[in-house]
Design a protein that fits this description.
This protein is mostly helical. Helices cover 40% and strands 8% of the residues. The chain contains eight helices and two strands; from the N terminus they run H-H-H-H-H-H-H-H-E-E. The protein starts with 7 loop residues before the first helix and ends with a strand.
C-alpha cells in the first residue's frame, strides 16, 4: 500500500510487500456460516489494507513467509457501531469455524486503546488511562463479562472505539487469560501488546 501524503504510522508501510496471500476458503466459511448464524457481514475486494493490518503482520513475521490472511474490518467509528457483546459473539463464531477446519490459525487484533483520532479534533491528545487499565485488568483475569457490557457511549467518551476489534479476539480465545507484554501511556494514545496462549 502506498500513500502519497501518509501519516507517520503509515509511512512504515513503504518497505512492506504490496500484495499478500488471502485464505479465501477460510474467509468464505466465516462469511457464509456467519450470515447463517445471523451476523450482518459483507465482503469487499477493494477495501485497502492499511497499517492496522500490515504493520503487526510484518513485525511478527519479519523475513519469514507471510501465511494466507483473512482481514476482518470492524466498524469502530461510524454510527451505528456493533456492540461489544456482538463483537465478542462474532469472535466465538470465528473460533467455531476454525475449530471445525483443518487449519492452525493465529488471530491478531489491532487498534489503540484510548485516543481521539482526527474524527474528534477537539479531543486529540486526550487519553483515559484509568479506563484502559481496567480493560487490561479484565483481560489479564479472563473476566470478559464486564467487557461485553461496554456500551457505545462508554467507548466513545473514553476514546476506546477500536477496542471493538479486541472484543472479537476475546470472543475467539475465551476463557483464556491475557499476558500483558507492554502497556504505554503515550502523548496522544495509550498502547498495549497483549498475548494469549491457547493449548
Amino acid at each position: 500500500m502506498v500513500q502519497d501524503h501518509a501519516e507517520a504510522f503509515d509511512q512504515v508501510l513503504d518497505h512492506m510487500p504490496l500484495t499478500y496471500p488471502l485464505h479465501e476458503t477460510l474467509a468464505n466459511g466465516i462469511l457464509e456460516q456467519g450470515l447463517d448464524a445471523g451476523f450482518d457481514l459483507a465482503l469487499s475486494w477493494e477495501a485497502p489494507v492499511d497499517h492496522a493490518f500490515l504493520a503487526p503482520v510484518n513485525t511478527m513475521l519479519g523475513t519469514r513467509a507471510i501465511p494466507p490472511l483473512v482481514p476482518i474490518f470492524v466498524n469502530a467509528f461510524v454510527a451505528p457501531q456493533p456492540r461489544a457483546h456482538r463483537c465478542y459473539a462474532f469472535g466465538q463464531h470465528i473460533a467455531r469455524v476454525v475449530a471445525a477446519s483443518p487449519w492452525n490459525v493465529g488471530i491478531i487484533a489491532t487498534g489503540g486503546l484510548s485516543h481521539f483520532p482526527e474524527l474528534s479534533l477537539p479531543r486529540v491528545g486526550e487519553t483515559d488511562v484509568a479506563f484502559d487499565r481496567r480493560l487490561i485488568q479484565c483481560m489479564e483475569s479472563g473476566d470478559h463479562g464486564p467487557l461485553q457490557k461496554l456500551t457505545a457511549d462508554e467507548l466513545h467518551k473514553t476514546g476506546s472505539h477500536e477496542f471493538l476489534n479486541w472484543m472479537v479476539l476475546l470472543g475467539a480465545v475465551t476463557p483464556a487469560r491475557a499476558t500483558v507484554r507492554y502497556f504505554g501511556e503515550l502523548p496522544r494514545i495509550d498502547l498495549a501488546a497483549v498475548e494469549w496462549q491457547l493449548s
